[in-house]
Every structure is written in structure tokens, then in C-alpha cells.
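To: structure desk
From: M.T.
Subject: fold request, one chain
Message: Could you run this one when you get a chance? Sequence is below, nothing fancy, just the single chain.
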Amino acid sequence: MSVMQIEEILASIPHRYPFLLIDRVIEFEKNKRLLALKNVTINEHYFSGHFPGTPVMPGVLILEAMAQACAVLACLTENRKLGDEPPPLHLFAGIDNARFKQIVLPGDQLYLDVQLLWCKRGIWKLHGEAKVDGKVVCSADLMSAIKETTK
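Reply: Done. C-alpha cells follow.
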């Protein structure tokens, strides 16, 4: 069962096609963690060039998908009312300890499990793991800074 469908995700972060990399939020624990899902399909725009004949999801986009899951976790943790105001931007402030352990292919379901480590004065530090079939394909410590947006 889903915690958030795509409409609510669109209301909580500013990302849009072709850069929205979360399809659904499956689990959420306030101030703790969030589990999101990205269905990887051959129709993704980046597969035409990465790599022709051997499509592989770029590692930087796996990290971006984890970062978007972090932004949704922050939105839900802060009790923002979805869609009432422009969602804030969560800008990368740092990526540490990034490790890629397996490639992600079209047809995979990429599970994005992010855990809040700490948050102080608009700076968020989180740990993320991306998994396919229960195996970690990428892990990293992510830091973001909030920038409020205006209409």
C-alpha cells in the first residue's frame, strides 16, 4: 500500500518530467525514514545515449532519485501542506561516501530508502540506499540546504 501517489509527490517537490525520479512513496516514519519507488523503464530519455545497445541508468541519476526521496521526507517531516505553497528547493550541499555496487537496468524497480541523520537550520543530512531485488546498488550520505521558493 502506498503512502503517497504521484499527485502528492508532485505537490511536495518541484521536479517534473523528465527529471522527476520517484513514482511512489511506500513507507514513511516522521523524523526517521522514507521508502520510495522508481520504476525504471526503457522509455527513460537517458537510455538512448547511456549506452546505445546496453542501457544502464546513470549513477548520478540514482543519487538524484535518492535526493528527491530525501526532499519528500523533509516535506512530510515538516508537515508542509501539499500544494498550498510552492515546494521548497532542496539543493545538494554535499555527497559523501557514494558507492555503486551494481548496475540498474530497464525493467528494474529501484527502491530508495533514505534515513534522516540530522537537521539543523535548514541543513539536512541523510543516508540513502538504492536497492534492486533487495540488493544494494548504491549508497551515499547526502546533505541538502533548503531554499524557499516563491510563486
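Reply (cont.): The CA atoms of residues 57 and 104 lie 5 Å apart. Let me know if you need anything else for the meeting.
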